[in-house]
Amino acid sequence: MSFYDLTAETIDHKAQPLSAYKGQVLLVVNTASECGSTPQYAGLEALWRAYKGRGFAVLGFPSNDFGAQEPGTEAQIKTFCDVNYKVSFPLFAKVSTTGAAQSPVYEFLTAAHGAPRWNFHKYLVGKDGEVIRAFATGVEPDDAGLRAAIEAALA
Asked: Is 81 a catalytic residue?
């Protein structure tokens, strides 16, 4: 099984087979609108714009798991992201990233690389649909190590 065998619900409540991203390098991030790390949306958008033409995508999965910092509805989240950060990368419906209600996407991501400990935890998924590496919240989207890992995965 790979990441591309899964299906997730978009922020507009439509089923999205993740096979649509097959062959791409992905950065999967659990996001939150009321977190101290929320400004990372701007950096994630910059990454998306810089690399999307090379077979890269950022996938945002809002989650209310940590500090109840994503209390809004999907419509509210989408508006917040558009108005404040001009987010154009794909956003999905709110998910649980940990615990008994953990989404299948996060079951897959965390199996070998551990569960997120806070919002804006990042998983780098290779072209083969396998998780390459996880990056903690404190690793900003413009971090040289993160960008080097993306470049290596794209090579």
From this structure: no
Q: In terms of C-beta density within 10 A (0-12 exposed, 13-18 middle, 19 or more buried), how is residue 13 classed?
A: exposed
Render pLDDT for 85-130 as a digit per residue (tens, 0 to 9): 999 999 999 999 999 999 999 999 999 899 999 999 999 999 999 9
Cα atoms in the Cβ-side hemisphere of radius 13 Å centred on 82: 9
Nearest alpha carbon to residue 92 among 1, 18, 4? 18
Closest CA to 115 of 129, 130, 94, 136: 136
pTM over the 0.90 mark: yes
**Catalytic entry in 6, 18, 25, 35:** 35
Domains of the chain: 3-154 (3.40.30.10)
Q: φ, ψ for residue 116 (rounded to 5)?
A: -65, 150
